[in-house]
Amino acid sequence: MSKGDRQRSLSVPLRLISDGQLAWSATVPASALLVPESQDSLRIADVEVPLDSDVGVAVVLELISGGLSVAGEVTAAWSGPCARCWLPLDGEVQTTVREVFTAEPREGEQYRLGPEYADLTPMVRDAALLELPIEAIRCPHPEPCPNLPAQLAEARDDSADGGPAELADPRWKALEALRGRMDEPS
User: Under a CB-based contact definition with an 8 Å cutoff, are residues 34 and 40 in contact?
Assistant: First the structure.
């Protein structure tokens, strides 16, 4: 399969692995990664893989004793709100996978290998979801961001020494005073 082929499934026929190894790549719609009869989306917190986007898979499948080794890369687009101003952002995750498929997988350690097919769907779904950015996504907009609340717009983004951002919130002043006393020599 060529990398540009768009498919509906990530099931690889085992008969294609003729010399013990197969380089395989495909592009599928993200909607193909959904679990049948489940309401789950491809989302972690506020960040999601849009269902109309493409997910790319480029792997090498190798027959091993008792199963199949799969190693390669998975790429997927994501979208979510800026953690500061809530404007929509998007990006791409790219992750390396190295997994084992067996007929009797150990829960959480291996994936199920069918008698005729290796269904890469669960592995690709897990890889994409685990790489989604769930921490604060940095605002790409130049200062001042039009949607940033006034309280945060007045605060500095980074201190001169690369430390955490200073907030213009008076509740932090007491903590700063304590921190100053802790730094004084006894």
Answer: yes
The pLDDT assigned to 19 comes to 87
Separation CA 68–CA 17 (nearest Å): 10
Residue with tokens 């290796």: 118
Q: What is the C-alpha to C-alpha distance for residues 127 and 146, in angstroms, rounded to an integer?
A: 35
Is the separation of the CB atoms in 70 and 63 below 8 Å?
no
Residues 62-78: pLDDT tens digits? Answer: 999 989 999 999 999 99
C-alpha–C-alpha distance, residues 162 and 84, integer Å? 19
Q: State how far Cα 76 lies from the chain centre.
A: 8
Give the pairing of strands 54-64 and 67-81. Answer: antiparallel
β-strands 111-112, 88-102: how paired? parallel
Whether the predicted pLDDT of 1 surpasses 80: no
* Model confidence pLDDT, tens digit, residues 2-49: 444 566 689 999 999 988 899 999 999 999 999 877 767 899 988 999
